[in-house]
Amino acid sequence: MTQAMQRDPIPEDFGSVEAAIEFWDTHSVADYWDLMEDVDIRFDIKGRIVMATNKVRDPIPESFASYEEAGEFWDTHSTDDYEDLMKEVEVEFDLKRRRFFVEVQEDLFLRARVLAKSHQQSVEEMVHQLLAREVEKLPA
Predict the structure, then answer these.
(1) Beta partners for 43?
(2) What is the tens place of the pLDDT at every residue in 27-66?
(3) Contact predicate 39/71, CB 8 Å
(4) pTM of the model
(5) Residues with Cβ < 8 Å from 42, sequence gap 6 or more?
(6) Which of 11, 12, 68, 129 is the most buried (most CB within 10 A)?
């Protein structure tokens, strides 16, 4: 009479590459064959893994209503999962130009947002114009 083979469960999350290596160094894939599934993997010309094609991913929204909404999306998604949709762009920075962020009261921000929308501008552009106009009126 043969005893059923006991096997350790595969961890849901190894926590690190080292932990995964340690697990598979001490366990045989053959013992877990019934849990394995076929995966199609695409490679780019440099040999990097681009994406397992059976992975389900949320679509990237066409636009975000705010920086916060964009942040919430990317806090819960990895750009690695969307690498096939990325395109290379050239970016120039003017490191001499500085921006300063100033807190404003919520009611003032909401009014500025309505005004900006009516002028088809961003809130940042609208607040900048309003502040520049008012500062110009003050004596130096």
Answers:
(1) 49
(2) 888 888 888 877 766 665 555 545 555 567 888 998 998 8
(3) no
(4) 0.34
(5) 49, 50, 51, 53, 84
(6) 129
